[in-house]
Structures are given as C-alpha cells and as structure tokens.
Sequence to fold (709 residues):
Amino acid sequence: MNELPSRRQLLGTAAGAALATFAVGGTASAGTPAAGSDAAAATYTPPALRTWLSLNSGWRFHKGDVTNAQAPAFDDSSWTALSVPHTWNAADGADGGGNYYRGVGWYRRRITVPAELAGKMLFLQFAGANQVADVWIDGTHLGQHQGGYSRFRFGATANLRPGRESVLAVKVTNADNPDIAPLSADYTFQGGIYRNVSLYAVDKLAVRLLDYAGPGVYLRQRSVTAASATVDVRATVFNNNATSRSLVVRAVVTGADGTIVADRSSAPQTIGANAGLDVVQTLTIANPRRWNGLTDPYQYSATVEIRDAAAGTVTDVVTEPLGLRSFSLDPATGFSLNGSHLGLHGVNLHQDRAVEGWAVSDADHTQDFALIKEVGATTVRMAHYQHDQKDYNLADALGVVVWAEIPLVNGTTNSAAFTASTQNQLRELIRQNYNHPSIAFWSIGNEQGKDDTPTNTLLASLAALVASEDPDRISTYANNLGNDATVASHADTTAYNKYFGWYGGSYNDLGPWADSLHKAEPQRTFAVSEYGAGANPAQHALNPSQPSTGGSFHPEEYQSLLHEASWKQLAARPFVWGSFVWNMFDFASDGRNEGGQPGINDKGLVTRDRATRKDSFYWYKANWSAEPTLYLTSRRWTARTDAATEVKVYSNAAQVTATLNGTSLGAKSSSDHIFKWTGVTLRKGANTVTVTASIGGTTHTDTVTWTLA
Fold:
C-alpha cells in the first residue's frame, strides 16, 4: 500500500489504511506575551523539507485518440511541443456554433527525478485536467481521475526511479459523460491539462498527500472572539515505512512577522507500518488579530512538524494559512463577519479569458483579482466549479468572502455512479480548500432543471455531506425554479438567479420580488446569486428599451440601466444577505450567438480580454469602492448621428461640473452616484465633454470626444 495505493486511495479515501486518531486537548504551551511583559517574543521559520518540482514544460501533445500512446517507446516526435497549462478549446470553444471539439487529447513528456531524491515518497500532482484523466509512467497505469476542476495526485514511488529517465503519459478527455457533473451548462467545457503539473517528494513518515489531494492538515476554528481564538489542528499522518515508528507532532501558529503565538507538541505515539494516524491538537490564541474582510485580511500561519521521536529528526513540515474569523446569517440583517454586519456585494467569476481559454496563468489570476478589488466587491462566487488554488489564495489575501461551488449544473443522472462522482467532487472541494479563511459558503449546485425525487435525493445527500465534512461553514444553493421549489430546501441557505429585465419582466421587479419572499417567509435567509444583462461595448443607444436577449444588438447603455436599477433595489434591502453580478468578465459559451459576438456570454462588467471595463463596471465602482471615481459613460460611442444627447457620469463625488466644447453645462449634485445632463446638443464635427469633481480634497477630471457626422 505504501508504494502503489489502490484506486480509492488515489481518489483520496483511506481504504485499506489502518487509521487511528489521537487527540491533545488543553491550551497551547506558548502564546502571546502578556501586556507589559519583558519577555521577547520568540519567532519561528518552518524548515523546508519537501521537494517540489514543476512539470509544466517539455510536453508533447496530440489532439485525438492514439493506440498505445502510453508505451514508453511510442514515437511522439511528430506531436506538438508545448507547455501546460494548455487547452485544445481556446479557439474553437469561443467562436460560436456549439461545435467545439469534445474528445481525447494525449500528453507525453520525459521526466528524470534527481538522484538525491532516492528513498523519498514521490507523488504526481495535477491541479486540474478536464474531464477524465488517465496517467501512466513507463506504461504502468497509475490510475484515473474523474472530474474536471479539482486537484488530484497519484503515488509514483514505485514507478519513478531517481536518476533514471521515465516517460509520463496522460490521456485526457472532455467528451460527454453521463456519470460526471456537469452534464451541461452555459459555458464551454474546455479540455486539456489546463492547470499546473508538479511532483512532490516527501519522507516516508509524512503528512498524507492522498487525502482527496487535500493539504493533510486541517484547521477547525472552534471559537473566535476579540479576546481569544481556539483552533483544532488536525494532522493526518501516514507511515510508509515497513516498521512502526514513534511519532511526535508539533503545531505552531505564527503571526505574519513569524512571531510564535501558539505552540504545542503531542506526546509520543506509535504509528504502525503502512498505517495512518490522525493527531488533533487544540491551540488557543489570546487577543487574536482577526481576518476582517477588505478592512484587514490578516492571516496567521499554522505549521505542523512531524518528528520521528526515536531518531530525533523532523521528517515533514506543512504550513497552511490561518485567518481567524467568525460569520453568521440573520434573516433580517444579512451577513455578519466577526459580529459586525458586512454587506456582501460582488461578482461571479469564471476561469476563462481570450486567447488562452481556461489555460490561465498566475499573472492572469492576479490581474482578475486586481480588477475585482478595483470595483469594490466584498464577495466572489467562484462559479460553477472548484477554481485554481491561486484564486482562493488571492481572495484570502484581498479579504473578499468566497462562495465555493461544485459543478452540479442544470441536469443530473439518476445513477449510483453520478451520485458517487458528484459527492466525490464536493469532498475534494472541501478537503482541498478547508483552510482558506475567505470561504464562508459551500454550494451544492446551480439551477437544477428538475424538482423531482432523484434530484432532491442527490441534493439532500450533498447538504448532509457538507454538514459532515465542515459543520462550521454555511451550505448554499443557487435556485431558478421558484421560491417554493423543493431543491431550495436542502442547504442552510438559498440564493436565487434572477434576471429581471433580461429573461423576462422589468428590471424594477427585483425589489418587489425580494419583498414578497421576505414577507412570506421572514425567517428565511436568502441571496441573489445571479443578475445581469449582456452588453457589447461597441454597440450603443440612448436610453434603449430592453433588447432581444438572443439578438445581435446588446447596447452597452441597456446593461447600465439594468444594473443601476438592480443595485438600488438590492442596496435598500439588507435582509438579502448577498448579491452577485453575473458576471465579472465576459466568457466563452460556444453555443451562444448574440450581441454581435458569437460564442461569448457578454454579461461581464469587463470584456473577455480584460481590455475594456464596461460602463457598468464604473457604476459599481462608484457605489462600492472608496477609491475616487469620476467616469463619463457612453465614452466608446464616439461616432454620433443624432445631435440630441445627454451626458451621464458615475461618481462618488458630491458634486460634478460638466462642460461641452468649453461651455459650462453647470454643476450637478447627486445622492445616488448618477449625474446627468439632459437636453445636450452636439455640434457638427468633434465635441469634447469634460467633467470635473473634487473628491477627498483632490480635483479629478474625465474627458470624452464624440464626433457628429
């Protein structure tokens, strides 16, 4: 078992392992020095014992199935040389027609593990491959992973011989599979090894790497107040030696500067040969600095050291983020963080961008969160699946509250295989992301198309799984089947996808709908998980009526009108605990052909290439962000045919002054961040509009030029 785990173990379970649990109670043996103490605070730097090797470069790729491509001697010289992350649908998955390639792709590369890693346990890690991946080393099948969004690992110690070259072959398919969620969705299911690949080398006595590819160290926050925080640190250890060992586990919590604030070591425990042991230690941190959203997203670090007691050596070290916080929902006042109300207003996020598709880089992720920060969002729904770890890390550091979700979208298959696969994806999501302080919500699905018994049985099992895996967070669900749908009854709270003014009704209907639901069920907590409208920033009209959602004309100005009305209604209703614009960025949905952009869902506040912040982006920035905002709308509508127009500005200033061609249009005040000058007449040729405002004692100016033919 230590060398070749079973398939269940490759998926992360503990099948076949002799597992035990050892708990250590009480308070930490070291903590924050008392006020006025003369004792110097001790610092701690975790020793770096694990070896991590990137395997992103040096791949060869072939689109299509090939017989015997896993064989070491297979000739791949004619294949395409590339690096991962990679997807084969970056182009055809975003050009419209719904006919992008869904099938098999093969990847091969040579790998030589450094000779100095002899005697270590070796694990291959894939951060994401869509949707089914089979992995071979030198023709030996290590296993198969099902599910396109979660991290997975395979033990490779018996197959990779340090100092000797081996061939790593991976067969990936994004073909339709009725046993794996999602079955369908309004986005392109891009195939390939679209996230990073790496190799870990660890000691034989180490924290487990095959616990659903989780970190193996889990930090349960039992109680967090301004005075004290109590944390259970659970270390899952595995002894891959052929003989038993005497084990000591140390848990250390340090501040951002390395100062030790809690420190405890377990008593020696015997861990059997080829066996597992869970060690739980309770640490108390006095006067904690709490993770407090955008205001102060402070993070401690929690480190676990595994020590071979007989040898007196540390064999493994794992460090995880620890952001101490508490949160709750109230049916009248919404979401609270650390006992204080926090309005959750934000965006939905997909893992997609122009040219690259899903094969986005760390720099891309960083840019996305810089834009999310700029708009002033306090929350992000990472739809509709598990995202790359980089996204959760960025959310932790930024201080945005996260809704994390599994890819159970639209339909289900009433089968044991589909149920098991979906439950496995949820368990992977929770285990792999358990320690991220930003995550407050685990979502069990989105927009199930049926409210029947099989669907509800599955959702009930998923809600129960959340409660079992992580009873301290909130389970949620995104519903579009009506207020009384049974699918909305399983999670701790429910959210609704409401497209008033786009897929029916008026954009003024959102508030009355929320009032009606709140009045009918005053004890229900609920959010708006999606709302929005499409917009092509190259298409324009003055105060347009609702366009055809499937038509070719999606004027930017209509999106703005819808979001103006929607946010005003949401802001006035604190009992709606959260709202999430659909979407932060335009994204690939190959079956669409609308708004003059085939293959694109154009509801983003920012274009798919991140080059253009649409007008609606600045509407939200003016409302959500403290950063000075002064923005002239319709700025891309540069070629005009009608002299009659208006000037509209989004700003968080108290007063804005406008001029047209150097002539004053006067000053306007506003209480809703919208400043408007109507009855404006353009002259033939170029027209320059300039607006000025004082914000925070600094003068800000914005200018556009419109040319009348």
User: Anything to note?
Assistant: Confidence is low (pLDDT under 50) at residues 1-22, 24-39. Residues 416-433 form the longest helix (18 residues). The CA atoms of residues 52 and 601 lie 38 Å apart.
